[in-house]
């Protein structure tokens, strides 16, 4: 016989699968919401605006490629021959900030910084250029020119022309050096020799320069220096090419402006009546040619001043 106690069901808490129906169908009381006072709403708006503004500014700064910007500045200064002080122009800063207003502290604003970047860029590409020069299939032709800068510094430019291993014609500025002492041919020869040694150039071809007498001394000193220091044979007479543009310029000056004493000396050297008549004819003609040259210079200046009108164009023709 089963006892009474056995007929009493067990307590629900002892069974883990038991569901409390009353608790299940009873909705819990909602928690009270946090209410903000009305005066704190502007502060929240300012905080949200600050977060959005910071996110936008961070996105703009991340989109800025500084290396591309530096390369563009270097290319603009070197290829377009713009002054280093260009980076200090307010207009250039405004242009950059119009494209990205979040990069004001990343802009280059000092000419010394530009010079430092250009020097580093030159050293980087000089190594690649040296490899191309050493693998050239032709001799390396060089050309040099010396002039005085507006700041009274003597500058010597040394350029090279060659055919690379892919049989493509190449040319490059190998060096732009300052002559600290004087402009003599011997000083120029030392600078040119340093450039050739810097790039490992041994197969020196022809040299092109103007008709200055200092170039004669320069090539003679260069030939001696190359042979003594690197055992490179360079004929200073055979390997010299005079600048054709300079020759044309001197010829035009002698013909149009009668500035060449050598031409008049050549006419006087004939010593006969025909030579004397040639001198008189040349002297009379040179005065008229000089006057005509001055008239055309005045017309050109007047046309530039008054504007491109049809009357000035007809007069210039």
Question: Would you kindly provide a written description of the structure presented here, covering whatever features stand out?
Answer:
The protein has helices spanning 4-7, 21-24, 41-63, 66-79, 90-99, 111-134, 185-198, 213-230, 244-257, 261-268, 273-306, 310-316, and strands spanning 140-148, 154-163, 169-178, 204-209, 240-242. The longest helix has 34 residues, at 273-306. The protein has a 5-stranded mixed β-sheet. The chain is α/β, with parallel strands linked by helices. It has 3 domains: 46-117, no CATH class; 135-242, Nucleotidyltransferase, domain 5; 247-316. It starts with a helix and ends with a helix. InterPro entries: RNaseH-like_sf, ZnF_BED_domain_contain. GO terms for molecular function: zinc ion binding. It is found in: Nucleus. Keywords: Metal-binding, Nucleus, Zinc, Zinc-finger.
């Amino acid at each position: 016989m089963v006892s009474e106690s056995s007929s009493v069901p067990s307590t629900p808490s002892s069974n883990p699968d038991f569901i409390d129906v009353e608790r299940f169908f009873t909705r819990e009381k909602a928690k009270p919401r946090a209410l903000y006072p009305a005066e704190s709403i502007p502060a929240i708006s300012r905080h949200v605006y600050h977060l959005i503004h910071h996110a936008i500014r961070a996105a703009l700064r991340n989109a800025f490629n500084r290396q591309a910007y530096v390369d563009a500045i270097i290319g603009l200064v070197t290829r377009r021959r713009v002054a280093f002080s260009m980076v200090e122009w307010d207009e250039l800063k405004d242009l950059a900030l119009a494209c990205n207003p979040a990069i004001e502290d990343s802009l280059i604003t000092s000419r010394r910084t530009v010079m430092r970047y250009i020097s580093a860029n030159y050293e980087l590409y000089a190594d690649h250029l040296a490899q191309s020069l050493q693998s050239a299939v032709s001799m390396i032709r060089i050309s040099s020119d010396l002039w005085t800068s507006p700041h009274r510094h003597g500058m010597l430019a040394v350029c090279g022309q060659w055919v690379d291993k892919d049989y493509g014609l190449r040319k490059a500025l190998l060096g732009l050096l300052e002559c600290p002492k004087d402009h003599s041919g011997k000083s120029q020869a030392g600078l040119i020799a340093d450039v050739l040694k810097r790039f490992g150039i041994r197969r020196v071809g022809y040299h092109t320069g103007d008709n200055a007498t200092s170039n004669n001394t320069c090539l003679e000193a260069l030939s001696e220096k190359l042979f003594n220091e690197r055992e490179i044979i360079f004929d200073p007479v055979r390997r010299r090419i005079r600048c054709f543009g300079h020759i044309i310029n001197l010829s035009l000056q002698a013909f149009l402006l009668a500035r060449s004493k050598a031409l008049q000396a050549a006419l006087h050297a004939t010593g006969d009546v025909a030579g004397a008549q040639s001198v008189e004819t040349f002297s009379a003609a040179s005065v008229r040619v000089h006057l005509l040259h001055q008239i055309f210079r005045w017309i050109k200046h007047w046309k530039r001043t008054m504007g491109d009108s049809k009357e000035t164009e007809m007069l210039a023709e």
